[in-house]
TrEMBL record:
UniProt keyword list: Kinase, Transferase
Pfam family, one: PfkB
Natural source organism: Neokomagataea tanensis NBRC 106556
Protein name (Swiss-Prot/TrEMBL): Sugar kinase
UniProt record similarity statement: Belongs to the carbohydrate kinase PfkB family.
Length: 323
């Protein structure tokens, strides 16, 4: 069936706030250098008051995937919850600038838009403070049915599983996509996320997911094994297509009982943030263009390789990879 969009990404809508700071600033905030700390709204406001903000952009795993896929020539839509505040306006503006369709209505209560404050010290290390705010308030009412039905692939971000209403929303989106004859993809997002919601993930995967994305640790956590080969065998029984990243070793595609190991080219790694998001973008962009699965994995490897050679999870101006 025809579709208006190649890919619809649904995820936590987070504004990335970037600032260069001294090591002393990180120490004064009581953070371990290189760590990620969950914070409340008051703490986010306090940190922002202490820094000179250099860059504000849309963020979040699914949004990163959407942005990279769009740069690779895919037609992409995005659903995620922001608030009716300046940060929410910044997020919407960034989505538009990336060429993405973003029809989500803002949250109208007093909960601020989610933000990830990224403090970069002179050695290039990134220390992050994340306030989840409005993004976790995504509900079934936020699932734009027409957008789902008009998207060839609906890609679900596993991080959204942390609230029951968001779980319900992802299931609703998957059901709508299936009913419309479209494909459903899921990224497991994080090993801790898998540990918290393993049973719910297994149910979603068995009932609704056509394409599963994970790294080795996430897949092992899903099947409670310590061996990647065993996890790959297990996932082959649950989905028709799985794409698993293996860092410098590249990726593995499992499809209809067959396994394809796809190597990647070595690059100078600067920042691995967003590597999995970019891999999914490259793979899905290739899938949307009708490439065979090995080529899709190669595109995913190349997209991830391009992202990790610089700071940040979004493509730079010189990003030229096409599906």
């Amino acid at each position: 069936m025809s579709a208006s969009y190649d890919i619809l990404c649904i995820g936590n809508a987070i504004v990335d706030i970037l600032a260069s700071v001294s090591h002393e600033t990180v120490t004064a905030l009581g953070a371990v250098p290189g760590s990620m700390t969950l914070i409340d709204a008051a703490t986010a406001h306090d940190i922002e008051a202490r820094i000179q903000v250099e860059q504000v952009s849309g963020g979040g795993s699914g949004a990163n995937t959407a942005a990279v896929a769009a740069r690779m020539g895919a037609k992409v839509a995005y659903l995620g919850k922001v608030a009716a505040d300046k940060a929410g306006e910044d997020f919407a503006r960034d989505m538009s600038a990336q060429g993405l369709y973003f029809p989500s209505a803002p949250l109208v209560d007093s909960t601020p838009t989610a933000r990830c404050i990224v403090l970069v010290t002179p050695d290039g290390q990134r220390t992050m403070f994340t306030y989840l705010g409005a993004c976790t308030e995504f509900t079934t009412e936020d699932v734009a049915a027409q957008t789902v039905e008009n998207s060839a692939i609906t890609y679900l971000e596993g991080y959204l599983f942390d609230k029951p209403q968001a779980q319900a929303a992802l299931i609703r989106a998957a059901e709508l996509a299936q009913k419309a004859g479209k494909r459903v993809a899921l990224t497991l997002s994080d090993t801790f996320c898998v540990e918290r919601h393993r049973d719910a993930f297994r149910t979603l995967i068995s009932k609704h997911v056509d394409v599963l994305f994970a790294n080795e640790a996430e897949l092992q956590a899903l099947y409670q094994v310590t061996d990647t080969d065993a996890a790959l065998v297990a996932v082959g029984h649950d989905v028709s297509l799985a794409a698993v990243t293996r860092g410098a070793e590249g990726s593995v595609v499992v499809a209809n009982g067959e396994r394809h190991d796809v190597v990647t080219q070595p690059v100078n790694v600067v920042d691995t943030t967003g590597a999995g998001d970019a891999f999914a973008a490259g793979f899905l962009a290739g899938l949307a263009k009708g490439h065979d699965l090995t080529v899709c994995a190669q595109l995913g490897n190349k997209a991830a390789g391009a992202i990790i050679t610089r700071l940040g999870a979004r493509p730079a101006e010189d990003f030229t990879l096409k599906a």
